[in-house]
C-alpha cells in the first residue's frame, strides 16, 4: 500500500475515528444519567489512563509500524493468542460501532429533515428514534463512505479534514456561547471526581468516557501508509488532546445550558436540543449538520483501520487470503473494506430487535467500552514488556513507555472488570433488553469467546506461522531512533 499520509492526514483520521461531535451529541446525556453534574470531571479522569496508554502505542508504532498494530505488537511481546484476541475484539468492537453509528447517522439525517420542516416522505411519518427508519437511511451513508475508502486513503483524509473544520467551528462556537449564555449556575464541583455518587457510577462513567476517547489509535493501523511513522504518533496525540479539550468544554457548556434532567431525557437528540436552546433556525440547525457530518466521517474512519487490521491478519494467515486483496488501481484493501461494510450492515439489521435508538446506543456503548478497556490494557502491557529494558538504561523515558502504560492498564482493567461484574450481578435472568445486565454482558463475552474459537481455527486448521513465531515484522526501526 502506498505511503500517502502526513501528520495532518493522520490527525484527521484519528479525530474522525474518535468522532467528538457524535460522542458529545449522543454520549453526554448518557453519561450525565450515570455521573450527574460531573461530566467535566469524568472526561478529565478518563483522559489520564488513555493518555498513559497512548504513550505505549506511540512508541510501539515508531519502532514497528504495522497495519495490524496492537494485534502484531501484543502477539510479539506477550503471546500470539492474546495478540489475536486483541485484534479480533478490536475489529468486532469497531463493527458493532459501525452498526450502531449507521443508525445514529440515519437519526441525524431525519432530525435534519425535521429542521427543514420535512416530517413525512411518501406518506411515511419520519421519527429520529425509529431504529428501522434510521438504519435504512444510515446504510446508504455507510456504503458511500466505504466506496470513498476504496478510492484511496488520501481522498478519505482530505474529505475528513474539511468535515472536521466545520464540526469543530460549530462546536467551539455553540459551546463557547453556551458557557457564557447558559442560565444554570456554574460550579467547580463539576470538576470534582470525588463528588461522583458511587463507585459503580465512577466505573460506568469511566468506561463510557473511555469509549468517547476510543478511536485515536486507529491512526496506528495506517502506520505503513504514512510518510514517517512518527507522523502517526503525532497525529494520534494531537487528536487525543483536542478531544479532551472539546469534551471538557462541551460538558461544562451543556450543564450551563441544560438542567440535568433535560440533558439525560433527550438522549440521542441531545445536541439538537442544545442547539435549539441557544439559537433559532436556521442557526440552530448547525450543530445537527455537524453531528451528521461527524457520524458519516466516523463510519468512513472506522472502515479504514478495520480493513487494514484484517489485511494484516490475512497476510499472516490467521484469516483467509480474501482480506489481502488490493484494488488493482488504488492499492487499497478493497475486498476487505466492502466485506466489513457488508458485515456491519448485517449487524445493523440484526439490531432492529432493539426498538429505539437511545436503547441501542446504551447497549452498544457499554459493551464496546468493556472490550476497549481490555485491548487497550493488553497493548499497554505489551509496550511495557517490549521496552522494559529502559528501566535500566533510561529511567526517565521508562516512565512514559513502561510505568505510565502499566498504570493505565491496571486502571482500565479494574473499572472494566468491575462494570462487567456489576452487569452480571444486576440480573438473575436473561432478557433481550438493553437494560438487562446479562444482555449487556453477553456482547463482550461473545466477542472474547468467538475470538478464542477463531484463534484456535487459525492455529490448528490454517496452521498460521503467526502462532509459531514464523512471522517477520513488516518494518522495524532501531529503538534508538524512536
TrEMBL record:
Pfam families found in the cross-reference section: AA_permease_2
Assigned keywords, A-Z: Cell membrane, Membrane, Transmembrane, Transmembrane helix
GO cellular component terms, A-Z: plasma membrane
Record membrane topology: Multi-pass membrane protein
Membrane-spanning ranges: 30-57, 78-100, 130-150, 162-182, 194-216, 237-258, 278-299, 334-354, 360-387, 399-421, 441-458
Protein name: APC family permease
Species of origin: Kitasatospora acidiphila
Lineage: Bacteria, Bacillati, Actinomycetota, Actinomycetes, Kitasatosporales
Subcellular location: Cell membrane
